[in-house]
Amino acid sequence: MRDVDDPELLDYLRAENAAAERFFAPHAEVIETIFGEIRSRVQETDMSTPVEFGPWWYVTSTTEGMSYPVHHRGPTAELATNTILLDENVEADGHDFFDLGAFDVSMDHRVAAWSMDVAGDEHYTLRFRDLTTGADLDDRIDDTSNAGIAWSRDGQWVFYVTPDSQERPSTVWRHRLGTPRTDDVCVFDETDERFYVGIGSTRSEDWIIIQSASRTSADAQIISTDRPTDDPVVVMARRDDVEYGIDHWGDSFVMHTNDDAVDFRLLVSADDADTTDPASWTELVAHEPGRRILGADAFESHLVIHEWADAQPRLRILFRDRTERVIDLGAEPHDVEPTANPQWATDLVRYTVQSLTMPTSLYDERVTTGEQTLLRRIPTPNVDLDAYTGERVWATAPDGTQVPIDIVRRTDTALDGTAPGVLYGYGAYEASLPPWFSVARLSLLERGYVWALAHPRGGGELGRNWYLDGKLLAKPNTFGDMIACGEHLVATGVVSPDRLCIRGGSAGGLLVGACMTQRPDLFASVVAEVPFVDVVNTMSDPTLPLTVTEWEEWGDPRTEPYASCILGYSPYDNTVAADYPAVYATAGLNDPRVSVHEPAKWTARLRDVSTGSAPIVLRTELGAGHGGPTGRYEAWRDEARTLAFILATT
Known about the structure:
Elements: H1 7-24, H2 28-40, E1 46-47, E2 51-53, E3 56-62, E4 70-74, E5 83-87, H3 88-92, E6 99-105, E7 111-117, E8 124-130, E9 136-144, E10 150-151, E11 157-163, E12 169-176, E13 185-189, E14 196-201, E15 207-213, E16 218-224, E17 233-234, E18 244-248, E19 253-257, E20 265-269, E21 281-285, E22 292-298, E23 302-309, E24 312-319, E25 324-326, E26 334-338, E27 348-355, E28 361-366, E29 371-377, E30 388-396, E31 402-410, E32 421-424, H4 442-445, E33 450-454, H5 464-468, H6 476-491, E34 500-505, H7 507-518, E35 525-529, H8 535-539, H9 547-554, H10 562-569, E36 582-588, H11 597-609, E37 616-621, H12 632-649
Parallel strand pairs: 32-33, 32-34, 34-35, 35-36, 36-37
Antiparallel strand pairs: 1-3, 2-3, 3-4, 4-5, 6-7, 7-8, 8-9, 10-11, 11-12, 12-13, 14-15, 15-16, 16-17, 18-19, 19-20, 20-21, 22-23, 23-24, 24-25, 26-27, 27-28, 28-29, 30-31, 31-33
């Protein structure tokens, strides 16, 4: 099953897809109805808010009937659509799969570096488009990683990243426009298999930053954009269990680090100091337990600090005089993200806010006064937003830990123990999962469902310790937390005890698979998207892509005590005779993250040992990878299929 070119495997997966189609055939009308509902709530012909960058205004647009966006620019905000830079529909034509990776304009705004993946294997072809003529240059670089692009100031040199044989972004190259790839220079090669490499440019446009990071440590190197052929300089030497990232603040650098600060603090270098000298760094923002600093975006006059506090994301403005304030977003559980802010000298910060009941909303805030301007809210035609309500509740885990759950429903859905529900979770890699708005989810809410987002340990919502208490030997806490969330929803009458679906993808697929094998009685159905379910075997084989880098997250099952711990929760190994709920598992043939064999062998085992009659369905995208189908219409139809499964099984 590990050989995706094996004819027997392909025949097997095609047979599984045919069986999946037979399952979904009686639900075809429901699928089409939900697809139509999703489409009716989207303004298909739309345009983003123009963004000023240098002498141009950049914007993207979508057109009804077209699957992908178009990228434009113009001399003013009003004329931002004047020139088409890249039409993704044109580039996607003839391909079953299309994903745009990089789209980075050079500092002189003459050339755009752009890349595409047309297989779903996350190998991108990098091209360079002359923005004056609209034609691509002859330069073509295949098999690059989507790990960032960086330009020299003069627009003659570009830096990119390639993967190793284990699909790990590992090597930084320097390419000069107009020269063959064989002349490209290796700038940095990360030989430690635990570390991923990424690259980017500072907003000041003065420096290129190469970031190398594992699950537990990191370091950064810098190259001047004016001297792109210089060797990179390491900012601070790598140390075990010390992470840091940097940004350039004009005459100094800013660092966020967990050195002596479990939830991170900010340091600043002395003006024009040798940043490689630890003595040149002083504390700018002190560590505060439970307030997890994710990073700081530097502007000429201020920093925008992105952090989590009280299981909520927030933005904090810090000025050069060390005064600060938190951007006011209200108390409702929400997500906030800095968005396109390419200008260095500005007193505006642009960010998006969304919640379970509010579509993504774009704001400009004047940092000096706090004046907020709503620029745009994603249109949701045919939706009465006042019909829905969201709230946060807390479940009690077996060890007494309080676990947050965000819930959304129609205001008229009774919480009397009769409503069907969906419980979604992830809980790994310190990934904090803020609530988000979904027009597709409304199709469930309109049918009386309650939708809940769990925040189990293993994520980062309540600080670094929330993550540490859900990884390695503490990983079972993640599953106990998720089960506690399901039990809480049932015990408090939020959902019916026999109508609860649990859903997750990738590491979240492991989450729902482990919860199902531990408590098959608690769930009516399970949606496991590209699920990581064969943990013992995958983590025992260092020849598989990304295995070595994952040992710091899960442990190495070739040794104790990790062997016993992982064996205790691995869904495949714990799939024994039981009356299992209905299962819908998905896979991608070209998936480099969760190999197709994992969901395939797991569903086969489920069918073999299940003592019940609930359906067990596997559907594989034979031309895609980890993220499923591309193109908005195919993505909507895929989601409609998933929602139809939930409706049929709860």
